[in-house]
Amino acid sequence: MTVIQEDFDLKRFHQRIIDLLDEMGIKAKEACKGANIGRGAITTWKKGSIPSVDKVFRLAKYLNRSVQWLITGEDGLKADEQKLLDVYNQLNNTGKEAAISTVRGLASSFPQLPEQDGESIGTAI
User: Fold this and answer.
1) pTM to 2 decimals?
2) How confident is the model at residue 108, as a pLDDT?
3) Where are the domains of the chain?
4) Count of H helices and E strands in the chain?
5) In sequence order, which residues have a C-beta less than 8 Å from that of residue 64 and are 6 or more positions away?
6) What is the pLDDT of residues 54-75, one digit of tens each?
């Protein structure tokens, strides 16, 4: 099964991965090994090979990104959700467990308020 869409741009997909790897300080071979997708998978994509869904999924998981982001460059997250995710991704495992516990506590103490006419969270509270 392959990831083929009419609007799928293989060059942008590959460049998005390379830019992210550079930002993270990871080499392509290291990412391939860590994601268990074959040593040269990212290079073959650069050469025009269409990636399989399972390889894109494994790479997204390894890089802590969504499959949607790898393919389109968009996560579908609101700005405040992305901020939380960015901070969370900077934490080690112990910090992540503490963050989840803290957020669960906050969620039970502060029930969700309905958004009104596109109000952001900051203005609704």
Assistant:
1) 0.61
2) 87
3) 10-72, 79-124
4) 8, 0
5) 89
6) 999 999 999 989 898 898 888 7
